Amino acid sequence: MSCKNLLILGATGNIGQWLVELALERGHQVTALARSKAKLEDRAGLTIVEGDPMNAADLERVMPGHDAVLTALGIRRETQANPWSPVLSPVNLTEVCAINAVNAMQSCGVQRIIAVSAAGVGASKAVSAPEIMNIVATSNVAVSFRDLDKMERVLAQSGLDTLAVRPVTLIGDEASGEARILEFYQATSVVSKRDVAAWMLDAVERPQPFESKDEMIGYS
């Protein structure tokens, strides 16, 4: 594996923090674009740049010199564990950030981007348990899913080497190393945040272009 210069968006979030941690452990050089430097600890191999991925100029400024982009951005709710909790983020957060990232990548010749999406978005809705999709449809999770669906479309239509990683229900941070591509999202399907980050880094290290634009992952 050759070490890469990686730009990580959403580096202060639950999955983003693991992306930074594991990427540095693997020897990659990491740039984290964050709204506040105070939320990240200075470390060898990590460059922290203050900026907002919803601001196209910030992404244009930070993009040059990178080999790939990883984004763990997602809409936040007041209480993340409560599907009905009020939405705090702009309802088009990931779509706008994807547009800005794609434009900056095309300007700078960066070809590969891997983004966190969610099981139940896009075509995976048809292979997701009805009880899960009912919660999505009747709660503020639907706001996130609509945004992620638009984000995926931006990436898929960009002409770049893109992958949307669709994790099933997220649990704690313990790594099992057993995440795999799933054909069905069951009510009992889970995956840890750390294993999602590891999957994304494995993906960025793949030598060949992505055969599929999306992968639904979990343990069962």
Question: Describe it for me?
Answer:
The protein is of the alpha/beta class and 220 residues long. It has one domain: Rossmann fold. The chain is 32% helix and 20% strand. The chain has six helices and ten strands. The protein has helices spanning 14-25, 56-62, 93-108, 130-137, 141-156, 193-204, and strands at 5-9, 29-34, 46-50, 68-71, 112-116, 161-167, 169-171, 180-181, 190-192, 214-218. Helix 1 crosses helix 6, helix 2 packs parallel to helix 3 and helix 3 packs parallel to helix 5. The radius of gyration is 16 Å and the shape is globular.
CATH architecture descriptor name: 3-Layer(aba) Sandwich
**CATH-defined superfamily:** NAD(P)-binding Rossmann-like Domain
Q: Please, how many helices?
A: 6
Major sheet: order of its strands? 3-2-1-4-5-6-10-8
Give the oligomeric state.
Answer: single chain
State the separation between the terminal residues, measured CA to CA.
29 Å
Output the helix-strand order. EHEEHEHEHHEEEEHE
CATH class: Alpha Beta
CATH fold type: Rossmann fold
The count of strands amounts to 10
Radius of gyration: 16 Å
Q: Give the count of structural domains.
A: 1
**Strand-residue fraction?**
15-25%
Low confidence ranges: none
Question: Helix content range of the residues, please?
Answer: 25-40%
Outline, from the CA principal axes?
A: globular
Computed structural class: alpha/beta
Largest sheet, if any? 8 strands, mixed
Mean pLDDT: 95
